[in-house]
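Entry for the shared binder. Reason: the reviewer on the internal report wants the predicted structure included alongside the sequence.
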Amino acid sequence: MNRKHTAADYLAIIERLRAARPDLLLSGDFIVGFPGETEEDFEDTLRLVQTVGYGQSYSFKYSARPGTPAAEREEVPEEVKAERLQRLQALLKNQQRAAQDAMVGKTVEVLFEKPGREPGQWVGKSGHLHAVHVTAEGIVPGDLAPVRIIASEANSLGGTLAGAPR
């Protein structure tokens, strides 16, 4: 993919970032099945993801973009791309869930964005960009408030207000 850095370079940067901010959660974007990707290459990606531990991620199967050098190379078979994506997403989902589970019991600042699906529910984002929902009155979009996290769900956190919105 014409990257100028190595996995070791990447891990060194992450080590420095985490030394400065131990609570840092990282997000990553991953493409599986890039032309020429071997099973060994993919296993290296899984090892890197396991080492880093992502709090959030996006992952996709490679799709050719006309006019790019990769589009002229032989593609990885679709069934291989699909199987690799499934394996990667399972690992990433487990990491995201572990990051969310670790938030339970903590108090985080939440920027509220909009009403939720349930009556009286509000949805916002934590400083780590987790979706957080609370049931409370007196919140308006743009409010910032401390929220004690009481639940970790599939793609969000549940909490209770731990202080007045501002």
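Summary line for the report: Residues 78-101 form the longest helix (24 residues).
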